[in-house]
Amino acid sequence: MKKKIMNVCGMAFLAISVLACSGQKKGATDTVVSADSIKVIADVMTSEADSTGYIVRLGEIAPDFTITLTDGKQMSLSSLRGKVVMLQFTASWCGVCRKEMPFIEKDIWLKHKDNAEFALIGIDRDEPLDKVLAFAKSTGITYPLGLDPGADIFAKYALRDSGITRNVLIDKEGKIVKLTRLYNEEEFASLVQMINEMLK
Q1: 74-76 β-sheet, strand order
Q2: Is 79 strand, coil or helix?
Q3: Is the pLDDT of residue 86 over 60?
Q4: Tell me: the pLDDT tens digits for 155-197?
Q5: What is the band of 5 on the pLDDT scale with cuts at 50, 70, 90?
Q6: Pairing relation of β-strands 118-125 and 84-90?
Q7: What pLDDT, in 10s, does the model give residues 20-51?
Q8: Are strands 84-90 and 166-170 parallel, antiparallel or unpaired?
Q9: Where would you tag: which of 14, 35, 141, 178 has the fewest CB atoms within 10 A of its CB?
Q10: Terminal CA-CA length for the chain
Q11: How do strand 166-170 and strand 74-76 relate by DSSP bridges?
Q12: For 5-44, b where at least 16 C-beta lie within 10 A, e where not — what string?
């Protein structure tokens, strides 16, 4: 709590510093600091990573993004509000991803794919369409995969240079309720159980 208060105080101080150091001269027109500038400051202040590289936290609203799926359709996370959403960050070169994906297919996707209150998106890190299509075929998964050029979507959730094999579970209000890293049977079972309970 103390750390959070210090972060908020630091943000306020930084915002005031931006206003104070705007280089405004006497007689110059008023300098306006936009909401976007303040947001950038807030993003910098809150992007402290946890031990696994996540920069998002449980209980926070999941950062919005728009992704192009392998079928060419575009989808934004915000358009899925009102659904339980699972994001799976993956890539063809990731051995742990390849190990986990058949379980996601069998234990989560095939069970809930016809439920209008559920959405699952695999987000492939910085690979071209042909490689992502071949990846889906080789792993036998049928859930939607989308492209993340430059890992820009990934970077909204974790440090850009941190590892993948990550799952983010989001509730119907858009809040993050579970974060996983790597493939651990016990952790994966708890993810499956949480999704089952949220969709009862």
Answers
A1: 74-76, 66-69, 145-148, 118-125, 84-90, 166-170, 176-181
A2: helix
A3: yes
A4: 999 999 999 999 999 999 999 999 999 999 999 999 999 999 9
A5: very low
A6: parallel
A7: 333 333 333 333 444 454 444 444 444 599 99
A8: antiparallel
A9: 35
A10: 34
A11: unpaired
A12: eeeeeebeeebeeeeeeeeeeeeeeeeeeeeeeeeebeee
How far is it, in rounded angstroms, from Cα 168 to Cα 181?
9
Task: Yes or no: say if 120 and 143 are a contact pair by the CB < 8 Å rule.
Answer: yes
Write out the H or E segment, with its range, that includes residue 192.
helix 185-198
Q: What is the pLDDT of residue 95?
A: 97
Q: How big is the CA angle at 96 (ends 92 and 102), to the nearest 5 degrees?
A: 80
For residue 132, give the amino acid letter. Answer: V
200/197 Cα distance (integer angstroms):
5
Nearest to 111 by CA among 89, 137, 78, 84: 84
Asked if 121 and 75 touch (Cβ cutoff 8 Å), the reply is yes
- Cα separation, 185 vs 174, in Å, equals 26
Enter the pTM of the model: 0.77
Nearest to 34 by CA among 17, 14, 11, 15: 15
Task: Give, in degrees to the nearest 5, the angle at Cα 40 between 38 and 42.
Answer: 70
